[in-house]
Design goal:
Rossmann fold; 3 domains; alpha/beta
Length: 355
């Protein structure tokens, strides 16, 4: 954490400013410390990342980082839930935190595909200050920060640890552990906001969208995506499987996901990738599922992490185009564009106008 971002942060409970006390610093990075609010909120800086979680999620930090709290017992004391811990949010933290620490070196090359046709990432980010909700291991944050004036990347889970390491050498990139429903920023603080692959896993996606949408300033862009409600039979069958898999330990799910990816990649994706180079491609392409064709553009790790996503996340919801359009409209956005990304996602883009 760089000292310069303290003025951008506010208490997620009362939105007041914060006071920083440094415990440990390495060069220009504050590695350990605490951000305190007059309301009594205390937010630790662990491993270079400020942990700006609301009270009901703070107890999870003591489970995830016991050594830190053992080093500073007088500064924090016992962490007690004030609202009752959200089981779904904690399970979501655990699932994605495990995934993106396991797959921390994941490299995805599909970032430009999340943008509407004709809109280039450089045009959105260049010389602007922006916010990313759900940064995972930081691969998109790393790309955005190369264009942006300043980029803030948040995630609910321990994924912020590999994200911090991945972007640590970028002076304009800041990683923060935060809840999208209680963001530690004042409304309208950013020129752009994007939230990719996240809303559909929230316990209340519509409300999550509303909270995220508040962060863009007048004229700012908001880019999100959600799962399409386009394959009801496959969705039903997957939900039947997920009744079991969401109850399994992450270590077991990792083995299952890798096994499924090996089978799918070896038996279907690689053969079709090879056949696409032959004269049979035109004929077979009419019957090959679009999902399979899409995966020929990606590597094995993408396939494996996607399987883990499908099988592990506690919440997995699907939407129609009209759902996403209405969220934008209700949040005061115009110039709304919602386009399909194969048969899996709706990609949304809108601009916030003055109220």
């Amino acid at each position: 954490m760089k000292r310069s971002i303290v003025e951008m942060l506010v208490c997620p409970s009362c939105c007041n400013g914060l006071e920083l006390v440094v415990f440990n610093q390495a060069d220009n990075e504050i590695m350990e410390g605490v951000l305190s609010c007059l309301c009594g909120g205390r937010y630790p800086v662990i491993g270079g990342v400020p942990r700006m979680l609301p009270p009901h999620l703070m107890p999870g930090l003591t489970s995830d980082y016991p050594a830190f709290f053992a080093r500073y017992p007088e500064e924090f004391g016992p962490v007690i839930s004030l609202e009752g811990s959200s089981g779904i949010q904690r399970k979501t933290q655990d699932s994605f935190g495990y995934e993106w620490n396991w797959a921390s070196d994941f490299v995805g090359d599909s970032f430009p595909e999340w943008f509407p046709e004709g809109i280039e990432p450089e045009a959105v980010f260049s010389s602007r200050r922006g916010l990313e909700i759900g940064c995972g291991a930081g691969r998109h944050a790393e790309i955005a920060a190369h264009y942006a004036r300043e980029h803030f990347a948040t995630d609910l889970s321990r994924a912020v640890d590999p994200a911090f390491e991945r972007t640590r050498n970028l002076e304009n990139c800041h990683v923060i552990q935060a809840d999208a429903f209680h963001l530690p920023f004042k409304p309208r603080s950013f020129d752009y906001v994007f939230c990719l692959g996240v809303l559909q896993h929230m316990h209340d996606p519509a409300e999550g969208f509303r909270r995220v949408a508040q962060q863009a300033q007048e004229g700012g862009l908001l880019l999100v995506n959600v799962y399409q409600n386009s394959r009801p039979v496959m969705q039903f069958l997957l939900e039947v499987v997920r009744k079991v898999t969401t109850r399994l330990p992450n270590s077991v799910l990792k083995v299952i996901s890798l096994s499924a990816a090996f089978a799918e990649y070896g038996l279907f994706i690689v053969p079709w990738r090879m056949l696409k180079r032959t004269k049979l491609a035109g004929t077979l392409g009419r019957v090959v599922p679009q999902r399979l064709d899409e995966y020929t553009k990606h590597n094995f790790h993408t396939c494996a992490t996607d399987w883990f996503d499908r099988l592990s996340c506690p919440v997995k919801l699907h939407y129609n185009r009209e759902d996403l359009e209405s969220w934008y409209q209700q949040a005061g956005y115009r110039e709304i564009v919602v386009t399909p990304f194969w048969k899996a996602f709706w990609n949304g883009c809108g601009r916030r106008l003055s109220e």
